UniProtKB/TrEMBL annotation:
<dbReference type="GO" id="GO:0005794">
    <property type="term" value="C:Golgi apparatus"/>
</dbReference>
<protein>
    <submittedName>
        <fullName>Mannosyltransferase KTR4</fullName>
    </submittedName>
</protein>
<dbReference type="InterPro" id="IPR029044">
    <property type="entry name" value="Nucleotide-diphossugar_trans"/>
</dbReference>
<dbReference type="GO" id="GO:0016020">
    <property type="term" value="C:membrane"/>
</dbReference>
<dbReference type="Pfam" id="PF01793">
    <property type="entry name" value="Glyco_transf_15"/>
</dbReference>
<dbReference type="GO" id="GO:0006493">
    <property type="term" value="P:protein O-linked glycosylation"/>
</dbReference>
<dbReference type="GO" id="GO:0006487">
    <property type="term" value="P:protein N-linked glycosylation"/>
</dbReference>
<feature type="region of interest" description="Disordered">
    <location>
        <begin position="33"/>
        <end position="56"/>
    </location>
</feature>
<keyword id="KW-0328">Glycosyltransferase</keyword>
<keyword id="KW-0732">Signal</keyword>
<dbReference type="GO" id="GO:0000026">
    <property type="term" value="F:alpha-1,2-mannosyltransferase activity"/>
</dbReference>
<dbReference type="InterPro" id="IPR002685">
    <property type="entry name" value="Glyco_trans_15"/>
</dbReference>
<feature type="signal peptide">
    <location>
        <begin position="1"/>
        <end position="24"/>
    </location>
</feature>
<keyword id="KW-0808">Transferase</keyword>
<comment type="similarity">
    <text>Belongs to the glycosyltransferase 15 family.</text>
</comment>
<dbReference type="GO" id="GO:0000032">
    <property type="term" value="P:cell wall mannoprotein biosynthetic process"/>
</dbReference>
């Protein structure tokens, strides 16, 4: 029996529609977007991600109201070094963090700047949150270029880095910012009474609802440092950071933690050229635009002595040492790696990299997607060696 032409057409259209839907589903599936690099066979972010195990502090069970006298908040603050001109981008960051987390817990914000904050900056930021906002000037003694830095040498070195296409090489404020974040922020008087901090930056994004007090989590589990993204650095910016670090370790061998991250720091298998460029340092680091940390660690004897050594060596200016590799080497060498935590459940983006878990609490990012942009960015992912040598905790 012949089938009428319109019915045949309808049948064909249905088949085409089904094929299209199957194709779309494959496009959206987490598995099709994750690029496995450096020997990683499976991305843990594609496994369903829940909350950390054990007891967690929740806003429903405790008093987290903004002005409570008997608050359940621990001594912690959200901090940001930021410029007045970045107000618009900072607002977006704050809106994301408030929506996903802080409207429940009302931790205070402390903003830092080398210039006075404008009234407009203060008005607009405070308008976004019920939590207390504080605005602090960075003292010149913490921000200024130290007197042992030779500015002629800085200019010549910066010129050489510029020729290697290193971004911000000649921008002195960028060097000052990296130095301040490396060894000064936790000395600011406004942070004296606080132990834990969560660093935020303008223009970053948060994707997942986090329903527990992350600072209490840090405290209860004795965590020193929490991160989301683990990356390679540009070796040209830190040519002598590892040699200086080795010198410091040689003079202070007892500072090395028994349970350190040496193999992650010195891996020369995944990217041999990087490790060579980093004079023996893999350049792997925690991306410090996101960090949740214990300032008692940074204020402690070991890290502080390490920072002083690096500061005297001059690489914050003669090279372009970033606070990310400096914090990471400090944490990786002097902390116990069991006390370092991957906040895999905090969906996060700082252009161009992501931490996006597979969880119903998240929206707006693709689980397992590590980068947005050109394919070469995939190899900047240092999680494979971290997972291999340190773990996925
Ligand atoms: N107040 C102030 N903040 C700065 C300065 N330079 C950088 N920052 C802040 O430091 C952080 C890192 O700077 P950013 O430009 O994002 O560096 P990138 O992420 O390495 O490209 C951001 O929160 C900036 O707002 C500066 O000269 N003054
Ligand atoms: Mg940034």
């Amino acid at each position: 029996m012949a089938i009428a032409r319109p019915i045949r057409m309808l049948g064909a259209a249905c088949i085409l529609l089904c094929l299209f839907l199957v194709f779309q589903m494959r496009q959206d599936s987490p598995r099709s977007t994750s690029k496995l690099v450096h020997g990683m066979t499976k991305d843990p972010l594609l496994d369903p991600t829940g909350e950390p195990e054990g007891e967690l502090w929740r806003a429903e069970d405790h008093d987290y109201s903004p002005d409570s006298e008997k608050t359940a908040r621990t001594n912690a603050a959200i901090i940001s070094l930021v410029r007045n001109e970045e107000l618009g981008d900072l607002i977006h960051t704050m809106q994301d963090l408030e929506r996903t987390w802080n409207h429940k817990f009302n931790y205070p914000y402390i903003f830092f700047n080398d210039q006075p904050f404008s009234e407009e900056f203060k008005r607009q930021t405070q308008a976004i949150t019920k939590a207390k906002c504080q605005y602090e000037l960075v003292p010149e003694a913490h921000w200024g270029v130290p007197d042992w830095i030779n500015m002629d040498l800085f200019r010549v070195s910066a010129q050489m880095l510029e020729e290697e296409n290193i971004q911000y090489a000649s921008k002195i404020s960028y060097h000052q910012m990296c130095r301040w974040n490396s060894g000064m922020f936790y000395k600011h008087p406004a942070l004296e009474k606080y132990r834990y901090y969560w660093r935020i930056e303008p223009k970053v994004q948060f994707f997942c609802n986090v329903d527990y007090d992350v600072f209490r989590y840090m405290e209860d589990r004795n965590k020193t440092y929490g991160f989301t993204i683990n990356l390679y650095d540009a070796p040209q910016t830190i040519k002598t950071l590892w040699p200086e670090t080795r010198k410091f370790l040689a003079a202070n061998p007892s500072y090395l933690s028994e349970n350190n991250m040496w193999e992650w720091i010195t891996d020369d298998q995944a990217r041999p050229e990087h490790t060579k460029g980093g004079s023996g340092y893999s350049t792997c680091h925690f991306w410090s635009n996101f960090e949740i940390g214990d300032m008692d660690f940074f204020r402690g004897e070991k890290y502080e002595a390490y920072f002083q050594h690096l500061d005297r060596a001059g690489g914050f200016f003669y090279e372009r040492w970033g606070d990310a590799p400096v914090h990471s080497l400090g944490v990786g060498l002097f902390a116990d790696s069991n006390n370092v935590h991957w906040f895999r459940d905090i969906g996060y983006n700082h252009i161009p990299y992501y931490n996006c878990p597979n969880s119903p609490k998240c929206s707006g990012c693709t689980p397992g997607k590590f980068f947005a942009g050109a394919d070469f960015l995939a190899k900047e992912d240092c999680r494979p060696t971290y997972f291999k040598y340190v773990g996925t905790h």
